[in-house]
Write a structure and sequence with these properties.
Length: 457
């Protein structure tokens, strides 16, 4: 095959470009900004300390061709920290649980827990999947929904969100908060043998999950973190280098302004500087609206909503008070922080850095401050009262986590169908396709779409 144009240089586009270069003679990667990596990046504060843009801990996908691109097995020990089992924990009801991220219902006031557990035990029918509120209310029960899940939904999507409008697949599921801890370890293990309890009870530790996988003869998940002071950026830089070395032409600060086609086949794209590229396939990982415009197709009159990520980065003069977890969750409504990355446990060094993540609307973002974040970290008992901040940085990234309403699903589905029905040689993938969000899912979708296209081309 001749020429492929990849649009968007995040992890989706970068990995796809390397995969596609094995299948096409020429591959152009068109990125609108001056940097590759998209949401995967690192920033430095005024002392030069580096932090990731979110919690980015790569894991193996289980697809040999992708894992070879991402990790390069020859280089694994030299260039990566192995982080398996991934250590996490969570804060809820004024206490830390350092063994699991799963929220513990038994920490609720006694009378609420008792009411909730009665409902929980009797709900054994198929869940109602109309929306997240109905889903949780028919799996965990209305009491646990009200006291455990709703506050987490508010933390992730804002207090004004109408939970009836949210699809089932939301952050609460992909962050593992739709399963709970409600009993002692042995009772959980016994109940989890039954499918209707399995999907609503979480493991008490990552090791238990690994044991299950081993007993089923499945591989345990392998997590890694790049060595080198630039964290996730090191990973992106290596991928960019690999792309260049295998012959992908990186076209930065550029975007597609026109898409020309004949009989449903894209034949040429025009870039903003006027240059024209002959094209046998477009792999599009940027917002689809730009493809619709460039192809002169109808553009929906609805804007999609995303959350703003406020990343509060700190370097302290002493260790945070958790000397174990790679990152931890805060499920308690006491603070808007929902997750904290503990770099000294990941990078295995004595530079005491952390990133606290807060999601908000664009407007609320200016009220989220480093000072307030620091006070919250002390209230959570993660930082001692005596700890001093050596350096810090607030980073604001708009348009990150999608607000997964039914409207969002309908618009992204309509855009997907409009583009893929209009052209036989157009792949819409990456997080903007609305079909994936987690890094690993983005990579798996890229692989699946490319192989499917090449099998029929
Ligand atoms: C704070 C935060 C925390 C996260 N936590 C996790 C986590 O715990 N686990 C997990 O798996 N994932 C997490 N993610 C999500 C993960 O980072 C993303 O889903 C993934 O990186 C998306 O990759 P992508 O390539 O699809 O999109 P992006 O990274 O958004 O890349 C899209 C690229 O397209 C470019 N572009 C846009 N418009 C155009 C255009 N018109 N022309 C050309 N280029 C264009 C952009 O500049 C960008 O480089 C997190 C993200 C953030 C921000």
């Amino acid at each position: 095959m001749n020429t492929c144009v990849v649009v968007g240089g995040g992890i989706s586009g970068l990995t796809a470009a390397i995969l596609l270069k094995k299948r096409f003679n020429s591959v152009y990667l068109i990125e609108q900004s001056e940097n590759l990596g998209g949401l995967l990046a690192c920033v430095r504060d005024n002392l030069g300390n580096s932090y990731d843009q979110g919690t980015h801990i790569p894991e193996k996908t289980g697809i040999a061709e992708i894992d070879e691109i991402l990790f390069d097995d020859n280089d694994l020990v030299e260039s990566w920290y192995a982080l398996s089992p991934l250590k996490t924990g969570n804060y809820f009801a004024g206490e830390w649980d350092n063994t699991t991220q799963t929220i513990d219902a038994s920490k609720l006031p006694r009378h609420i827990y008792q009411q909730g557990i009665g409902e929980f035990m009797t709900l054994v029918d198929s869940p109602d999947t109309t929306n997240i509120e109905r889903y949780i209310s028919t799996t965990l029960g209305p009491t646990f929904y009200q006291h455990l899940s709703k506050p987490i939904i508010h933390k992730l999507y804002g207090k004004e969100i109408d939970c009836n409008e949210l699809a089932v697949r939301t952050g609460i599921n992909y962050f593992g908060a739709s399963r709970i801890k409600a009993f002692d370890k042995d009772t959980t293990k016994t109940l989890k043998q039954l499918p209707f309890f399995d999907h609503k009870l979480g493991f008490h530790s990552a090791a238990e999950y690994d044991e299950l996988l081993e007993s089923l003869g499945q591989d345990t998940t392998q997590y890694y973190y790049p060595k080198g002071e630039l964290g996730a950026q090191t990973w992106v830089n290596n991928l960019a280098k690999k792309a260049s070395q295998c012959g992908v032409k990186l076209v930065m600060s550029s975007h597609v302004v026109d898409i020309k086609s004949e009989n449903k086949k894209i034949t040429q794209v025009t870039l903003n500087d006027g240059s024209k590229l002959a094209c046998d396939l477009i792999y599009w990982s940027a917002p689809p609206i730009f493809a619709l415009k460039a192809a002169n197709l109808e553009v929906p009159n609805v804007s999609l909503s995303f959350r703003t990520a406020n990343l509060l980065h700190y370097t302290f003069n002493e260790k945070p008070l958790n000397d174990n977890a790679h990152y931890v969750w805060n499920w308690d409504p006491i603070s808007p922080i929902f997750r904290i990355t503990l770099y000294h446990n990941i990078r295995q060094n004595s530079c005491y850095q952390l990133t606290a993540e807060v999601l908000s609307s664009k407007e609320e973002s200016e009220h989220i401050t480093l000072e307030k974040g620091l006070a919250d970290l002390k209230t959570l008992g993660l930082i001692s009262d005596s700890a001093r901040v050596l350096s810090s940085l607030k980073q604001t990234v708009h348009n990150t986590f999608p607000i997964p309403t039914h409207a969002f699903a309908n618009v992204t589905q309509a855009q997907f169908e409009q583009l893929t029905n209009s052209f036989d040689n157009f792949i819409l993938s990456g997080r903007f396709s609305g079909r994936c969000w987690l890094q690993n899912d983005v990579l798996k979708l890229a692989y699946q779409e490319i192989n499917q296209f090449c099998a029929y081309a």
